[in-house]
Design brief:
heterodimer; A: mainly alpha; two-stranded antiparallel ribbon; 22 helices; globular; B: alpha+beta; 4-stranded antiparallel sheet; 9 helices
């Protein structure tokens, strides 16, 4: 084995070992537990399982479709039109991408109450499929705007102009020229949204309620409340199969998207000239903006509503330990969450960074295998992951069950794909000739990477880190298993508070939600500021 | 009645910048006009406004006296060909070429005939089923031309159509373009920043600068009498002289002048010229002379060696006065 080859093996070893120990091994453990305790096939054959899968797939598909419907016009406006405060609009639209699902769930719940559609007047949205779809749209319109919008800005507009001059109406240009070229990006976005909604947990629990179970919430229920491991495992396996297939499909769409005819620099957006153009921009942006602004606005309003007036009472109460049912003051959860998030981000950046280098530069087979492997945690049920870690890492040398390290490790696994998705396109976009120039000028291969790659992708590393940080802060599915009762994170504390009766606790939950939202929004703003303007990927 | 294209007082603004600042331009049917100017002078924007892709702030665009200023681009019946071809990457060559015919609602048979005819015209018969990414640069440009020609537009606009090609291919395609345009008798506007390409394709030259037309006329007239130092330099005249330098050569002028190469005769005449530099250029060499402190250059097939002194005659009929040009 040559020296260079050895270096690559060592670089690849870190992410592979990490995934093997903290992802594959726990997954294998619960699969083994499940298979030994009963017949997975029986569970799969149950009629109720069929209904469960149908509903899970149906709501995810509907969520993806609706997110596209609202997100595509907004993606066009953000990519192609120069509106005043464009950066702000864009940031606003992508904020929910990293907003904790629990916060969105709580915000929508509060919105239904505020709008009087929570059932007190007969008509209600609460605990309906519509509510689930709305919550998923709030979270995922951002994905569409981000993935499709970035691609749209890089599509050469002259193909559209050529079609116009050749006699195609606007509508025909959209159908025959724009959409076919955007198709890979649209499919990619749809796949990601479907994946998120397929394994959605916090939203289903808060907005859907116990009457609207999906695979994810049933895995959680069977594992924790009914301690029926066999069923939980069978459902987790079923979910895993769908997820792996979908991840592979999304990866293919992403590669095709990258191959479409793109310009190197984003086409500068143009200012609307006519009244008709201005109207089109407003119409394109309004639904997406309302979807984001209304629930966040209501969340803030509810957190400030004390008795009949407004005040900071709920925020002040966050510092008090009594009467919350938690073992610590809610504010302590903020400190815990931040500590965990910093640790998780560090792990995700180191492991994800090394993995990205391998994915971006190694031969097709190795790179693609690792690429898919790294995406799987994204689609895997976070609940299954948390549960698996709990079950698997229970004996020396890896008795981490009661260790605090286990929470950031789980969160790092969830954040890892975000680091890799940001870094790989950036690494691939580096012209290899710049590295060759460095080598010809006397730099060793490692030195060439240090001098060329690192400065060029440095900002992207920060983007990936900010993503991982935001994801860690909001992570709920896995953390709900792993966080110790005496050290809850913000989402687990929120969930406890929401589950108890009383307007004061509810107000505190809203206040905690506002704090959490503010922290994640701050991360997004960092991302938007750092993100290279023409970056593909996330 | 005015036939063909008539642009009057056209203004196009992007925010605070004015890209086209009041342009008048007429193109008769069968006429090929080259719109020449440095990059950023507004020539492409003018073309796009004529095509309907930009909304003008003022002015009118007419065809045969019918105003089309506010007409959307798909209803003007004009053709436009871009630099870098802008072919539809997700369609075959045949589907690209047939696009306009399909938009016009022609039957499948008519579409097939039109595609075949257009591809034949550009010398690419049999390419219909090829995918766009298998084409070479020159082939892609020919397909783009076929696509623009297939729906039989009444005006063809070409926006730097040869700009991305190498010199040899560019000369070859310019000649082909000239032939095709001649055969069709189309009105055509050809935007370029390359004066040789302009001469190769067009009969009439319109020079633009900073959003306005600064010279408009038959190619030979514009070359012979450029009118301003800017146009003279842009068209490739090497000997643009300030009034002082012109007087030093014994020319009786008060304005800047352009000394066309045809005015310079080596080996005879009253001036003493010292050969400062000789650059081999293939068929001819470029010779730089110092005539009493004034630099002049010309092309010669048998250049004198550097350092020699040689008599020089300047024929005043090939010396043209130029309008003073502050920035020139």
């Amino acid at each position: 084995m040559s020296g260079r080859r050895l270096v690559w093996v060592l670089v690849a070893l870190v992410p592979v070992a990490f995934l093997a120990v903290f992802f594959a091994y726990p997954m294998a453990t619960i699969i083994e537990h499940g298979l030994s305790e009963g017949s997975a096939l029986d569970v799969v054959r149950r009629r109720s399982t069929g209904r469960l899968v149908a509903f899970t797939v149906g709501q995810a598909a509907a969520s993806a479709g609706l997110s596209l419907l609202v997100g595509l016009p907004a993606a066009w406006a953000v990519a192609r039109v120069d509106v005043p405060g464009r950066r702000l609009v864009r940031a606003l639209l992508v904020v929910p991408f990293v907003l904790p699902t629990l916060v969105v769930g709580a915000a929508l719940q509060a919105t239904f109450e505020r709008l009087g559609v929570d059932g007190t007047d007969g008509f209600h949205l609460e605990r309906t499929v519509t509510a689930i779809l709305l919550a998923h749209m709030v979270l995922n319109v951002a994905v569409v705007v981000r993935v499709v919008g970035t691609h749209w800005a890089l599509l050469d507009p002259r193909a559209e102009e050529a079609a116009r001059v050749l006699g195609a109406s606007r509508r025909r240009v959209l159908r025959e020229v724009t959409l076919p070229r955007l198709a890979p990006a649209i499919w990619s976005a749809a796949g990601i949204v479907f994946l998120f909604c397929f394994t959605s947990f916090g939203v289903i629990l808060t907005v859907g309620g116990p009457g609207r179970p999906t695979l994810e919430t049933e895995i959680w229920r069977y594992a924790t409340q009914r301690t029926d491991l066999a069923t939980a495992t069978a459902l987790a396996l079923l979910q895993l199969v769908v997820v792996v297939a979908l991840v592979a499909a999304v990866g293919g769409a992403e590669r095709r998207a990258a191959a479409a005819a793109l310009v190197r620099r984003p086409v500068p957006p143009r200012r609307p000239v006519t009244a008709r153009q201005r109207l089109a921009v407003v119409a394109a942006l309004a639904p997406a903006a309302l979807l984001v602004l209304v629930p966040i606005g209501v969340l803030v309003e509810r957190s400030l509503a004390v008795g009949d007036g407004y005040g900071l009472g709920h925020f002040r109460a966050l510092g008090e330990e009594t009467g919350t049912g938690l073992r610590v003051a809610p504010l302590a959860a903020v400190g815990t969450s931040l500590t965990y998030a910093v640790a998780a981000t560090t792990i995700a950046v180191v492991v994800g960074g090394l993995a990205s280098v391998v994915v971006a530069h190694r031969g097709r087979a190795t790179g693609r295998a690792l690429d898919v492997l790294l995406m799987v945690p994204l689609g895997t049920s976070a609940v299954t992951l948390g549960f698996g870690l709990l079950v698997a890492l229970d004996e020396p040398p890896l008795d981490l069950r009661t260790s605090r390290v286990i929470v950031p490790i789980a969160q790092a696994l969830v954040g890892l794909p975000f680091v890799v998705r940001s870094l790989v396109p950036a690494l691939r976009s580096i012209d290899p000739r710049t590295r060759e120039v460095a080598t010809v000028l006397g730099a060793s291969p490692a030195r060439a990477r240090w001098e060329v790659d690192v400065p060029l992708v440095g900002r992207t590393v920060l983007v990936g880190a900010a993503f991982a940080f935001a994801v860690s802060l909001g992570e709920f599915g896995a953390t709900s298993f792993l966080a110790r009762p005496d050290a809850p994170t913000v989402p687990t504390a929120m969930f406890r508070l929401l589950g108890q009766p009383g307007a004061a606790l509810r107000g505190q939950a809203m206040a905690l939600g506002v704090v959490l939202a503010a922290l994640t929004v701050a991360s997004v703003l960092v991302i938007e500021r750092l993100r290279p303007k023409d970056a593909l990927g996330w | 009645m005015v036939t063909g294209l008539a642009v009057e007082g056209l203004v196009v603004r992007f925010g605070a910048t004015t890209a086209v600042a009041g342009v008048d331009l007429a193109v008769a049917p069968g006429e090929v006009v080259a719109l020449l100017g440095p990059s950023g002078c507004g020539k492409s924007t003018l073309l796009r406004a004529v095509a309907g892709l930009e909304v003008p702030a003022a002015g009118t665009v007419r065809w045969d006296d019918a105003e089309v200023t506010r007409l959307p681009p798909d209803r003007r019946g004009f053709g436009l060909m871009f630099q870098d071809h802008a072919l539809f990457p997700h369609r075959t060559v045949g589907q690209n070429v047939g696009f306009g015919l399909r938009m016009a609602g022609r039957s499948r048979a008519e579409q097939a005939d039109g595609v075949a005819a257009a591809l034949h015209r550009v010398g690419l018969s049999g390419f219909a089923d090829r995918t766009v990414d298998t084409l070479s640069g020159g082939e892609a440009q020919r397909v783009a031309l076929a696509r623009a020609l297939a729906p039989e537009p009444r005006l063809l606009m070409l926006d730097e159509p040869l700009g991305s090609l190498d010199r040899v291919l560019r000369d070859e395609l310019a000649a082909e373009l000239r032939t095709v345009l001649g055969e069709l008798g189309l009105a055509a506007v050809h935007v370029t920043h390359d004066q040789e390409e302009a001469y190769a394709v067009a009969d009439r030259i319109v020079v633009m600068r900073a959003g306005t037309v600064v010279r408009d006329g038959p190619a030979a007239d514009v070359w012979g009498d450029p009118g301003s130092a800017f146009v003279a330099r842009f068209l490739g005249h090497a000997n643009v002289l300030a009034p002082g330098a012109a007087m030093a050569l014994g020319l009786d002028v008060v304005t800047p002048v352009v000394v066309a190469e045809a005015a310079l005769r080596l080996g005879e005449g009253p001036h003493r010229a010292r050969v400062v530099d000789v650059r081999f250029r293939g068929a001819t060499s470029r010779v730089v002379l110092d005539v009493g402190g004034v630099r002049l250059s010309l092309h010669a097939s048998a250049p004198p060696p550097v350092g020699t002194e040689i008599p020089l005659a300047i024929d005043p009929t090939h010396v043209h006065p130029l309008a003073p040009d502050a920035a020139g």
